[in-house]
Amino acid sequence: xxxxxxxxxxxVEDNLPLPARVRARERNDRIRALLRALRPGQSAFLxxxxxxxxxCWRSRIAVVASRLLGARQVATAHREENGLCGxxxxxxxxxxx
Length: 97
Description:
Structural class: alpha+beta
Mean pLDDT: 84
Oligomer: single chain
Number of helices: 2
Distance between the termini: 19 Å
Low-confidence stretches: 1-9
Order of helices and strands: HEHEE
Helix content: 25-40%
Number of strands: 3
Radius of gyration: 13 Å
Strand order of the largest sheet: 1-3-2
Number of domains: 1
Strand content: 15-25%
């Protein structure tokens, strides 16, 4: 299932206090690093940061992916893996993409 988020969802970061803004940017960096490492057809699990709802985490991943890779380049799904709640991210496209 592909999940699309409004890029304005991340604009709220500018209104956060500095420590929260730094955490948000670190999370975005973590998402970008994972997305860059994934090849088409591969997937990875990103556990939800403490205190973040899975829907918010999924939305953040979708927005970062859209900005980095373009629209509709990843699919996401809520998962619980190894006792951790999070989001599984699939890089779309075939192995030759």
